[in-house]
Amino acid sequence: MKRLYAWGGHPYLALPARIYLGLVFLLACYHKLLDPAAFALDIATYQLLPLGLINLLAIVLPWIELAAGLMLLLGLRTRVGALLVATMMAMFTVAVTLAVLRGLDMSCGCFASQGAASDPISWFTVLRDLGWLSLSMYVLVFDRDPLGLDRLFARRKPGEAVTHHREHRT
Amino acid sequence: MREMSIFFRRSPARRLTWHAPVLEALVVTALCAVLALLVNALRAEGLPLVQETEYQILVPCPETSGEVETLTGLNLTGAPTETLVLDARSRGAYESWHVPGARNVPYDYLEAVASATLRKLASSGAKRVVVYGDGENPDCGEHLAKELAGKGIRNVGFIVGGAPALTGDLPAGVRP
After folding, report:
1. What pLDDT, in 10s, does the model give residues A126-164?
2. What is the pLDDT of residue B63?
3. From B11, which residue of chain A is nearest by alpha-carbon distance?
4. 10 Å Cβ neighbour count for A164?
5. CA-to-CA distance for A113 and A98, rounded, in angstroms?
6. Residues paired with B71 in a beta bridge
């Protein structure tokens, strides 16, 4: 396990994964931010949440997606962004799986509203969500913040730079 | 190249600790919630925080659809057994009048055609299936024909105008 974690190829894999996930989440939040009412209807169609929570989730969730997407794309607090994305992906995967098992003939609502019916749910949707969940877990565990604001800020702080330098020598 | 590699160098002091990211994630979530509620309050079309009336959930109807022939009348050529005539209207409408020999397959806009019905049609031996409906807009006959074609029944056609359009083809005194 230690050898796997120490493998030098992780930064090269985690960087594109991080940017890809960031773009996916920015794309996903776009229509939800523009039309929260349609997104609320999307959530209601899953028939999982009590009525009292639907609007609150429809209002707040797109902003969390936006924040997580930007954090991953910019490399700002990357692990926090990856943790948020992983948590959301776990929620989405459970919701879509339950909808597929219940035989609901509906659109995913991930990138467009139900009205568009362009992304009907299926086991492929579950597989896709599991893929994104795995990718976010990978970024969470293995990302080393290359080419990101975290790295930039860390390098500008003289105290931290010295610490890294010393520890690297050892 | 050495300059590039510095970006991908593993941060040596880094250890996988969870409490700090979890705490920061909670803070980000809380900030997002505050921002979202603020923007929602300022929006003209902002959502009420708690929905009081149930959402009208629109689950799309099955849209299995195939290519069908458009017919303007009931022109039954060939042996009677070669053409299967289906009446897509309700049971009541079928019983009040139907084309002699037509089978009733009431079309439901919300339910798919039963697989038993499809099996019966497929095993009927007919070379052609002609469907007529109520002739309204939408026409249940057209929908049934398209669904049958989409589910693998070949040579399906529907009569434009449905049962009301068939009056010219009927014997005198018989009206749909």
Report:
1. 999 999 999 999 988 877 666 666 766 665 554 444 344
2. 61
3. A144
4. 18
5. 19
6. B159
Q: CATH 3.40.250.10: which residues of chain B?
A: 69-169
Q: Where residue A6 falls among pLDDT bands split at 50, 70, 90?
A: low
Q: A167 to chain B: which residues are within 8 Å by CB?
A: 12-13
Q: Where are the domains of chain A?
A: 9-145
B45: DSSP letter: T
Strands B103-104 and B83-87: parallel
Q: B11 — contact with chain A (CB < 8 Å)?
A: yes
Joined tokens for residue A11:
């930064």
Q: Which of B12, B31, B37 sits opposite A164 (nearest CB)?
A: B12
CATH no., domain B69-169: 3.40.250.10
Quote the tokens at residue A55.
């609007």
**What's the rounded Cα separation, in Å, for the pair A106 and B61?**
9
Place of tokens 């209807």: A41
Residue-wise pLDDT tens digits, B63-94: 667 788 888 877 655 555 678 899 999 999 89
The residue among B101, B110, B167 whose CA lies nearest residue B129 is B101
